[in-house]
Design a protein that fits this description.
By secondary structure, the protein is of the alpha/beta class. The chain is built from 12 helices and 9 strands. The protein has one domain: Rossmann fold, CATH 3.40.50. Helices cover 44% and strands 12% of the residues. Strand 4, helix 6 (156-168) and strand 5 (172-178) form a beta-alpha-beta unit. Helix 5 (126-136) runs parallel beside helix 6 (156-168). The longest helix has 23 residues, at 276-298. The relative contact order is 0.19. Residues 27-271 form the Dehydrogenase E1 component domain.
Length: 308
């Protein structure tokens, strides 16, 4: 069975999220847009991968994760970090290689280590490490959350890790951000079967959601995540989502029709239309906050890495 990409499933008349959640959604959105703007202005080096359209996933998971949990992220991890540690200044300084950088500027956009948060640009690298970390958390009430994309299921390390996670019964939450395309290859052209079927091969429970509504997602996942903690068992949660921006800072191989379809599922446009006054106020606040952060960080001297 081919893993078909599901249609939009959330009601367009859903109530607005809590103001705290909307602030965080908008913080991540404007952070990512600012990165693209800085690249266009020649103020950033290398590359970056934004999570435009997928911001609601880490925001929805935020209260389900606790202080002692570990979070492993991937190349598209700015939203994961900001939902875990609301520090746009530190993250932007890291990406720009400026004073105050989280990792002295040596990690950049993709490789961040900060207070039980770790990200990597190497596909499939984080899952085996996350399993080992989860093994140390057995019977502590803490868990390890690891974000991967649908394209990462082409890596053999994923299956070695899932095998050990099930054998060792570790508290591991695998969050799959399934946006239907692996850089430039549609999932249907590179994945046989389904994510659910692959999890089932190891006897690992799987839950799939096509919702983009934060409260709805939390209601679906609260008991499942609690079970990961209390019973020390792995779980695969698959989000059917849409990437509305390019793969990295400018490369998008999708057709105009495919890009328009993704944009039609954007929470930003939907919320702006549903409650324009409150949304507009918070949108301005978060945009201005990120603009101030960018101005502040840009004026700082370069970060200096000191060998420990």
């Amino acid at each position: 069975m081919i893993d078909t990409f599901p249609p939009f499933a959330s009601p367009r008349s859903a109530p607005p999220p809590a103001e705290e959640d909307l602030r965080l959604l908008l913080l991540i959105r404007h952070f990512e847009l600012t990165l693209l703007r800085l690249f266009e202005a020649g103020q950033l080096s290398g590359t970056t991968h934004t999570c435009l359209g997928q911001e609601y996933i880490p925001v929805a998971l935020k209260p389900l994760l606790e202080g002692d949990d570990f979070v492993f992220s991937n190349h598209r991890g700015h939203g994961h970090f900001l939902a875990r540690h609301t520090d746009p200044h530190g993250l932007l300084a890291e990406i720009m290689g400026r004073e105050g950088a989280l990792c002295s500027g040596v990690g950049g956009s993709q490789h961040v280590y900060h207070r039980r948060f770790l990200s990597t640009g190497v596909q499939g690298e984080s899952l085996p490490v996350a399993v080992g970390t989860a093994l140390t958390l057995k019977d502590t009430g803490a868990l390890t959350c690891v974000y991967i994309g649908d394209g990462t299921w082409g890596e053999g390390s994923v299956y070695e890790a899932l095998n050990m996670a099930r054998l060792w019964e570790v508290p591991l939450l695998v969050v799959v951000e399934h946006n239907g395309i692996a850089q430039s290859t549609p999932t249907t052209a590179q994945m046989a079967g389904t994510v659910a079927g692959r999890a089932a091969a190891f006897g690992i429970p799987h839950h799939r959601t096509a919702s983009t509504e934060i409260d709805e997602i939390r209601a679906e996942l609260a008991l499942l995540v609690a079970e990961v903690r209390s019973a020390s068992v792995p779980l695969v949660v698959e989000f059917a989502t849409h990437r509305i921006g390019p793969h990295s800072k400018g490369d998008d191989t999708r057709t105009p029709e495919e890009i328009a379809l993704a944009a039609d599922h954007d929470w930003y446009t939907r919320y702006a239309g549903l409650f324009p006054e409150a949304f507009g106020r918070l949108d301005r606040e978060m945009r201005e906050l990120v603009e101030r952060a960018a101005a502040d960080v840009s004026a700082r001297p370069p970060s200096v890495w000191e060998r420990p």
